[in-house]
Design brief:
Pathway: Carbohydrate metabolism; tricarboxylic acid cycle; isocitrate from oxaloacetate: step 1/2. By secondary structure, the protein is mostly helical. It has 18 helices and three strands. A hairpin with a 4-residue loop joins strand 1 and strand 2. The longest helix is centred in the middle third of the chain and has 27 residues. Bound molecules: acetyl coenzyme *A. The site of acetyl coenzyme *A has 20 residues, from loops.
């Protein structure tokens, strides 16, 4: 076998690959994507079959352990996660220190890093039991602190979890319930949100997952690694695109600009304006998740009796792009974020919570990838090379 690292040292061979367009950072057995064919599989199972037949917590198990759980395993797993939904009372004070207008993604990354300070017993990287416990704690508690971030921005009291509810039902209640009235979960909304979380659950070496793996490769604990992943997801070119899509659609509606002139501005790259929710580094075909999201968006809006002109604008934009050579020749198609915002809005989430929902969905994938890094004997600390292009040596002025 060829020792690439030693060969590189000997020959001085370095590849310069901005954005890692052609460079694999790892081998992985978790998720498979064929971007040209529009194929996504978790542990070998096509995303369409998973979305039609599974639940988010079952998918989390699949990503983490590589196989589907038995009915008993799934039941025990769900119960164990439920038992861990309470967060330490003191952690709530963290939110008091933050301004109410703070972005919920900033609140979430802070809160998840802070969670680690309470659970140092589960922060050991090489202890299997500790990692299991940290996995359960993160899956159980991250939705709770995410809902706290939402409540903080509304100025409403934080609710305690209700463990008689399912994972997603609990999350909806924590966001939309109040201390004053009982909250009734709409099963169609709960099912659609569960499906959305499944669709976001992993996506191989995207920017946030690569961040989690890079931080994990330093043997940093899992809470800090996931917090770093949340920060990477925040950006509008990554998970933040779902919020940016809604802003773009609302901007078109409010300005009265036609879809056609907006598309012309995108094509002319006017002020760097992009069609948010379009294009993908890996998919050069329709993102298979976008198709499924579109179906769910239609179902949820129908169930809730909402007619949102933003959905009409989104569909018109998609149609215009599919018929336009600029987008066709660059293989730009809707990505997972294009239709999610319209649905989250109909469910009652403010746009600033959209990327938080993405983070909750991506959590099992991040954990599975972190665990893979920390169990793969081939793992080395991530440390890219650079090509230095700065000043040659010069003398510091004598003073
Ligand atoms: N609108 C208009 N033009 C676009 C778009 C877009 N959304 N995306 C790419 N292009 C154009 C580029 O300007 C470039 O054109 P050029 O060849 O004339 O210079 C060409 O298509 C290739 O684009 P790159 O930027 O080189 O593609 P890259 O793989 O680096 O970027 C990215 C991928 C970041 C997703 C990009 O398509 C984008 O910015 N999309 C909008 C933001 C978005 O939706 N992000 C979410 C991605 S999915 C996710 O993270 C969940």
């Amino acid at each position: 076998s060829i020792d690439i690292a030693s060969l590189t040292r000997q020959t001085g061979l370095t590849t310069l690959d901005y954005g890692f367009v052609n460079t694999a950072s790892t081998a992985s057995a978790i998720t498979y994507i064929d971007g040209d064919a529009g194929i996504l599989r978790y542990r070998g199972y096509p995303i369409e079959q998973i979305a039609a037949n599974s639940t988010f917590l079952e998918v989390a198990w699949l990503l983490l352990y590589g196989e589907l759980p038995s009915a008993d395993e799934l039941d025990a797993w769900e119960k164990r996660i439920r038992r861990h939904t309470l967060v330490h009372e003191d952690l709530k004070h963290l939110f008091e220190a933050l301004p109410y207008h703070a972005h919920p993604m900033s609140m979430l990354s802070s809160a998840v890093a802070a969670l680690g300070t309470y659970y140092e017993d589960s922060a050991a990287v090489d202890d299997k039991e500790a990692v299991e416990l940290a996995t359960i704690r993160l899956l159980a508690k991250m939705p709770v602190v995410a809902a706290y971030a939402h409540k903080k921005s509304l100025g409403q009291a934080f609710l305690y979890p209700d463990n008689s509810l399912s994972y997603v039902e609990n999350f909806l209640r924590l966001n939309f319930g109040t201390m004053a009235e009982p909250y009734e979960v709409n099963p169609v909304v709960a099912k659609a949100l569960d499906r959305l979380l499944i669709l976001h659950a992993d996506h191989e070496q995207n920017a946030s997952t690569s961040t989690v793996r890079l931080v994990g490769s330093t043997k940093a604990n899992i809470f800090s690694s996931i917090s770093a992943g949340i920060s990477a997801l925040y950006g509008p070119l990554h998970g933040g695109a779902n919020e940016a899509v809604l802003e773009m659609l609302a901007g078109i509606r409010d300005s009265g600009e036609s879809v056609k002139t907006f598309v012309e501005r995108v094509k002319n790259k006017e002020d760097g304006v992009k069609l948010m929710g379009f294009g993908h580094r890996v998919y050069k075909n329709y993102d298979p998740r976008a198709k499924l999201v579109k179906e769910s968006a239609d179902a949820v809006l129908e169930e809730l009796g909402v007619h949102d002109p933003l959905l009409d604008i989104a569909k018109e934009l998609e149609q215009a792009a599919l018929e336009d050579d600029y987008f066709v020749s660059r293989k730009l198609y809707p990505n997972v974020d294009f239709y999610t915002g319209v649905m989250y809005k109909a469910m009652g989430f403010p746009p600033r919570m959209f990327t938080v929902l993405f983070a909750i969905g991506r959590l099992p994938g991040w954990i599975a990838q972190w665990r893979e890094v920390n169990t793969d004997p081939a793992t080395k600390i991530g440390r890219p090379q650079q090509l230095y292009i700065g000043s040659p040596e010069r003398q510091f002025p004598q003073r």
